[in-house]
Write a structure and sequence with these properties.
The protein is α+β, with helices and mostly antiparallel strands. It has helices spanning about 1-50, 85-90, and strands spanning about 50, 55, 60-65, 105-110, 125-130, 140-150, 150-160. It has one domain.
């Protein structure tokens, strides 16, 4: 009996930290993956959108959607009218195909068309905020891109503040 308890204790000592680490990694990977998807969709929109004979367009800011992040993942319809910026999410085609834990925001420095030139630095921020453990402290993940005549230039860096709170 004592040997069995010892073996079970050893297995748990090895398995539990690995399991907890894996759960955290999965929670964090959601933000990184969906911010990349949002960036890709915004780049495609910028490269192909036209309005009133002008191109190089970006929609208005959107989010945070959902307004408050959840500890447990939830299915969210980003294009639903109750969400801030639902038209923008629909324009970008951004609709996560899985439940989310984070609130997502799309924040261009300028919106509209003809966003090229005039020496004014133009950029876009893609942000995810989440309260992964329900303590009221939020993790923040942000991806940025600058705008020029050839399109959106995403930064390679994912900015993170309080990764696991």
């Amino acid at each position: 009996m004592g040997l069995v308890l010892c073996i079970v204790g050893i297995v748990l000592a090895v398995f539990v930290p690995t399991f907890v680490r894996r759960v955290r990694i999965n929670k964090i990977s959601e933000a990184s993956e969906l911010l990349q998807e949002m960036s890709d969709r915004a780049s495609a929109y910028y490269a192909t959108s036209w309005a009133d004979g002008k191109r190089f367009c970006l929609p208005q800011s959107a989010g945070p959607t959902p307004t408050v992040p959840t500890v447990d993942s939830a299915e969210i319809d980003f294009a639903a009218e109750e969400h801030t910026g639902h038209d923008t999410w629909e324009s970008l085609g951004f609709q996560p195909d899985r439940p989310v834990r984070y609130s997502y925001s799309f924040v261009p420095s300028h919106h509209g068309c003809d966003l090229v030139g005039d020496g004014d630095l133009r950029s876009v921020s893609f942000r995810a905020e989440g309260d992964l453990d329900g303590d009221g402290v939020r993790s923040v993940f942000e991806r940025r891109a600058t705008i020029d005549g050839t399109g959106l230039k995403p930064a390679e860096t994912l900015h993170v503040h309080r990764r696991v709170e």
